[in-house]
Structure formats: C-alpha cells, structure tokens
Amino acid sequence: MHLGIPKRSDLRPKGKNRPLLPIPASLRGRFNDYKSKRTILYAILILITLNYIISRAFFSSGKGHNFNHLINQEALQTLQKNHGLYKHEIIVNSNYIFPPTEHAPLLRELTLDRLFKSKVSPDNPQEKTYYYSDDDNINDLNEIKDKSNSENPLDQSLKAFKEHGRKVFRPSGSRKSPEIVIVTGVDFEQFEQGHLTKIVQNRVDYAHANGYGLYVRWIQEFIPTLQEFHNDRKWAKLFILRAAMHAFPQAKYFWYLDQNAYIVRHDIELYSYLLESKSLEPIILRDQPIVPPNGAIKTYKKTKAEDVRFMITQTKDGLNTDSFILKNDIYGKGFLEFWTDPLMRKYPSFAGDDKDALMHILQWHPVILSKSAIIPGRTIASLHSSNSAEEADDTSFYQEGDFVVNFKGCDVHHTCELILDSYWKKQQASE
Amino acid sequence: MSNPYAAPEPYSKTLKPAAQSRFLRLELAARYVRHRPYLLLLLPLLLFFLLPHYHKSPRVVIILAANEGGGVQRWKTPQEWSVERSSIANKREYAEKHGYILSIKDTALKRRYSHEWREGWEKADILKQTMRQYPDAEWFWWLDLHTFIMEPQISLEEYLFKNLENRTYRDLSYHNPLHISVDSPYVDVEHAPVDLVLAQDCGGFNLGSFLVRRSEWTELLLDVWWDPVFYEQMHMTWEHKEQDCLETLYRTQPWIRERVGFVPLRAINSFPPGACAEQRDDPQYFYSEKDRDFLVNMAGCNFGDRSCWNEYEHYRNLQKQLRKSRRWSWLPGF
C-alpha cells in the first residue's frame, strides 16, 4: 500500500459521531439513547478523580493516619509556666537588681539558721543541712506576706533576703530590656558593708554609664544548693548567672564579674571594645593550650568571631572564671547548665573549683570548644600585682588604663579590702 | 540537497514516507487531545501521584541500625539474616514511597565501644556522622533493627511534623514511669520548638524509635551526651547506657527538657505482646490491629522464650493481609 505523506484531511476525525470505542452492536442501541456518550465518560472520569481526591483528603486526617486517639488532649494543652528557682516571682521595673548592702551586718547577725530552714545532717551531727521553702506566698503588692513585726530591722532584712531571689525584670511599655547585663555574687560573711557597697556601687556606676543591666545576688542565697555536694562557694557564680538569664530573658550578653574585681574604666563600651566581630576577631587566642603551659588540647585555629558564645581569659594556673562573658542563646544556656549539672559538681576533683569542671568541659566537648574563645588577660581581667617590679609579664598584669582589675587570690591573704580601696581612691581622685 | 557525508541511499526517494518531524508528532498529539478533551482530566490525576515525590529535596533520613551486636562473638543464624533482610526491605520500601533517604548503619561491636569505655553510646556518634553525611536533611529518624513499619502509606510530614509543637506532650505529667519531677525551673516550653520526638515505654524513655531535628540544640546535645566524668560516676548504674544518660540529662538540665516532645508509645513504637511483660494488660503499650498502629518494635525479642524470627514473620504477614484489604480503596465503594 502506498502511504505517501499524510495530508491534513487524513488526520481529522471523520465526523462528530465517530464512535470512540467499538461498542458491541447489541449495546449500541442503548448507548445511542443518551444525548452524548461523552457525558458518560466525563461522569466516570470525574467520579474517579473526585473519589481519589476525597479519599486522599480524608484519609490523611482520618483515624487511620494520626495518633490523636492515643493522646490526652487536656494534658496536651497544659504547658508548664516558665519560672526560676521560685515559682512566685516579683516583677521589677529597674535595670539594676541588687541587694541592699546595708543589710550585710544584719544578715550576719541573723545567721544562716534563720535565713533558711535547716535540719541536722543524718551522717554528721555537727553539720546542718539547709533547704529552701517555697511556701511564702506573694501578695498583691508583690511582697512576701509576713507575720512578723515589720518595724524590726532584722525582720526587714530577712524579708528582703527572701524576696531578692524572686526579682525578675520584664520589659513593659517604654522600659526596654538592657542588652548586656553585669552579674556579680557578693558574700556578706566574707566582707564588711563598706566594702560590699563599693563593689556594688562600682557596677551600678558602670552599668548606668553604658545603659547596661545589673544583677547582684548574695552568695549565701545558694548555700542549700552548694551544700548538696559540698561545693566551694566559687560555684555559686554559675547559679547566679543562670538566675540572671532568667531575670533578664531578652538580654543578649551576660558578663559575670566576681566580687574580687573592679571596673576601672567606665568609658569603655563592651560592644565596640570586645563583642563586635571586628573587635573580637583579632584578639582571639587561637591554638592556645587550655591547660597552660602545654596542655594537649588547644583552642581551634580557625575559630570565627561570629561563632563565639563564651569569652574567658586565662592565667598561668588555668582559665580565670572571675570574669567571663556568655551569650544568652541555646548554646549559652546549654553550656552553663551542663557546667552546673549535679554530676559535674559531685565529681570529687571538681567540687572545690568550678574552673576545673570548665577546663574538663572544654577539653572533652568539641562543639562547646568551637564556640568558646580565650582572650588576652588584660581585656576583661587584668590581674592585680602587689609588687609590679616582681612581675615581668605584661600580658596579664594590670597597667594604667586597663579596663578591669582582678585581685585574684586576695582572700588568701585577706587583702581584698585594702587592694580595692587603693583602686577606689585612685578612681575617686581622677573624677 | 546534497550532503557529501550522507551514505548513498539505496532506495528511491519517491517511495519512502518522509520522516515525521518532532514538531509534527507533537501537533498530532495535540490534535488528538483537542478532540478528546476529557483526557485533560487525567493530568491533575497524574500530578497527584507525582507531586509528593518531586516537589522537595528529601528532608528526612531514616537511620536503621543493622548488625546489632554483631561481631566476632558468635555467628549469625539464617533466621537472623532473614529478619535483617526483611527489616531493611521494609524501611527501603517506606523510604522510596515517600522520598526519604534510608541510611543503614552498622552497629557491630567495636573496640572503641568496649566495656567501661563508651559502651552503648554509638547512637550519638552515628547521629553525628549521619548529620554530616546528609547536610541538607532536617529530620533524622532512628530505628532499631527489630522494628517494622506496619502502615507504610503514612507520611511523617502529615503524621508528625505538621504542627508538631501542639501535638506532643511537653512535660511528663501524663505518663511518668521514672517519677521524674514534672516541674523544673528555667524551662520555657512556650517559646521553644520540639527538636527531639521521644516515646516512653513502661520503663521510661525508649530509644528504639525516635526522631531528632537538625538544630543548634541537637548539635550541643550530641556533644554533651557522652562525658567521661558522667560515665565514670554512672556506668555501673546506667544499665541502658545512653538511654539512661539521656534520662539523667533530661532530669537535671532544663535546656534539654525544653525541646523534648513526647508522643504516646504506640504513635511511633508499639510493642508486641511479650515486651513490658509486667504490664501486659495495659493497652497503651501494645500494637493494635484495629487502630492500625504505625510501627511495631519487637524490642527484646532475642531474650527469654521469644523468637525474633517468629514475631517478625507474624507482623510481616499481618501487614500483607492489611494491605490486601486496602488495595482497592481508591475506587468508589471500597
């Protein structure tokens, strides 16, 4: 058969009524009763399509495809409220949360026995175990209901002591949260009122000059937690820092500065001084052994400033936890809570010093190490030297014009008051 | 038209039909459809079948732990081989159906996980490694070898990930076999996403089947999950190794608590009768054919008088039956 090139007319259907499928002759009559066979085909196809769509839509939300029947909807709706160590909190409006230092002698007079509930330890009858009680309810005036005489200064200081830990800052209206918060723990058993006032005043002045927040707590507030595993009071800084993160949830950075440090330069602003990438990038100590002088684990060679969540300095004995900066994000919180985990505090060689736990963490956890930076000592913790001629090392000891002075170890020789006084006088004179 | 490179043509041009151009063939098809417009209805149908596979790159990786405890201590029996094969085939079918990635990981005994040194912490290491291997995937679903997906038509997106924060329990108040204190300071569940989907069996957390999302939180969790100081103090107490360790971390560290979402055991990890033997009358743990539970985990089937192979065959056959009854579900009336 000769095929040739098909013409257009060859391809066209031969007419409108051409049957689509060969239908048996016996049925043809019946089908012809309908106006159009196409309608039937349309109907069938639409039915199948719709059925498919509907079954898909219904199956995916239907019983076979979810686990709603296993879930207690009521339990699903109840979300725990975010709270700190105490369930009832006092909302304050001030950027500066610090205890009244004039209560120090009164609190000392009260002794821990009246500040906490206590019981005699079952193992050692000489030792008392203190514990918290959360039974003091907050009344409408944001104060703890007390049954005692409010005129008595001892009762007043007891009440202030109990209330202090419940204070949290929440932004309201025009009051915005500070971006940086300075955190300090103070010890009323170790220092006199005058000394404590100087420490707190120093932080308040600095925070005020730069628009930062301040969070100061009594170290004694954490005695029950410290007692759990016989931890040294140094560990209290971590609990205070965690409480500060709760008290200022929207702050971006927290700077823990111990009570044995003094801010000399109030004109230094932390963002441009340290926190911005371009300031931090050149000063990160890379490839620096974590355990000086020649530990096997070193900081990363390629740490980027924007990844850094934790900034700390180092002395020749190890990391200096008297002054460090922590970012308030999931890494910062996770790292801090891991550091304070009971199993860390319980470990015999860490119980005495939070620094040892930190050095362990940085050496064993690469993700944490990659977010940490060791920075030169004189950036945020220049060490005080009683005899400047004796120390030839100019990378860690205080020199005129440094930001912060850290009198590390002053408690051993009981010289903290004297040293602080000398810096305080110098600062007063220059103003 | 003279092409010098063309082979000499043996036939006369006049008798040969001209080769149809591509364009002409398209035109033919177009004309064919123009006269049968109902064919256009098939297009959306086609799209429905294809869409779920091609509109996104895989964001789910299924990690299947194979060769559990394998190594040099003894030989694998033919039945164990068979179970392993069925398990892999089951996950492969599921992954292909939904466009997920299946990643089979060898969990044979290795010296680096020997006793008193990190034994039982392979999961964290394998998760870290898999996250590096698939940098674009978001969710990672860990499955033990003795699990069997009973309802492979269920997609994880629909079943879990959609609206995840509102479909998981954010604390332990509903079911708390370990008696962990439900309330904890510093936990802000209202503002935290769920990065780990877990189920609890009669004895606490169950890591036979769990899902974890790539996030900063997860990176840190996988980093701190194993710590030598924790291990040294607890390795005699932590019978289930990383599972017990996770329970401890959950108990003591609020940042971990914040991002764990709990689902009922039967949502992702139903047990066959035989597991959780002390609570055999409690329906919340055991596979229900009527409810068409998603997955069976024959946890502990190699202990006592249970047999992994028997149990596995049972659920495999059951799935076949269930599937047969569903074959015509797309037609009206089925």
From TrEMBL, chain A:
<dbReference type="GO" id="GO:0000009">
    <property type="term" value="F:alpha-1,6-mannosyltransferase activity"/>
</dbReference>
<keyword id="KW-1133">Transmembrane helix</keyword>
<dbReference type="InterPro" id="IPR029044">
    <property type="entry name" value="Nucleotide-diphossugar_trans"/>
</dbReference>
<dbReference type="Pfam" id="PF05637">
    <property type="entry name" value="Glyco_transf_34"/>
</dbReference>
<dbReference type="GO" id="GO:0006487">
    <property type="term" value="P:protein N-linked glycosylation"/>
</dbReference>
<dbReference type="InterPro" id="IPR008630">
    <property type="entry name" value="Glyco_trans_34"/>
</dbReference>
<keyword id="KW-0808">Transferase</keyword>
<keyword id="KW-0472">Membrane</keyword>
<protein>
    <submittedName>
        <fullName>Uncharacterized protein</fullName>
    </submittedName>
</protein>
<dbReference type="GO" id="GO:0000136">
    <property type="term" value="C:mannan polymerase complex"/>
</dbReference>
<feature type="transmembrane region" description="Helical">
    <location>
        <begin position="40"/>
        <end position="59"/>
    </location>
</feature>
<keyword id="KW-0812">Transmembrane</keyword>
<keyword id="KW-0328">Glycosyltransferase</keyword>
<comment type="similarity">
    <text>Belongs to the glycosyltransferase 34 family.</text>
</comment>
UniProtKB/TrEMBL annotation, chain B:
<dbReference type="Pfam" id="PF05637">
    <property type="entry name" value="Glyco_transf_34"/>
</dbReference>
<dbReference type="GO" id="GO:0016757">
    <property type="term" value="F:glycosyltransferase activity"/>
</dbReference>
<keyword id="KW-0472">Membrane</keyword>
<dbReference type="InterPro" id="IPR029044">
    <property type="entry name" value="Nucleotide-diphossugar_trans"/>
</dbReference>
<protein>
    <submittedName>
        <fullName>Uncharacterized protein</fullName>
    </submittedName>
</protein>
<keyword id="KW-0812">Transmembrane</keyword>
<dbReference type="InterPro" id="IPR008630">
    <property type="entry name" value="Glyco_trans_34"/>
</dbReference>
<keyword id="KW-1133">Transmembrane helix</keyword>
<dbReference type="GO" id="GO:0006487">
    <property type="term" value="P:protein N-linked glycosylation"/>
</dbReference>
<keyword id="KW-0808">Transferase</keyword>
<comment type="similarity">
    <text>Belongs to the glycosyltransferase 34 family.</text>
</comment>
<dbReference type="GO" id="GO:0000139">
    <property type="term" value="C:Golgi membrane"/>
</dbReference>
<keyword id="KW-0328">Glycosyltransferase</keyword>
<feature type="transmembrane region" description="Helical">
    <location>
        <begin position="38"/>
        <end position="55"/>
    </location>
</feature>
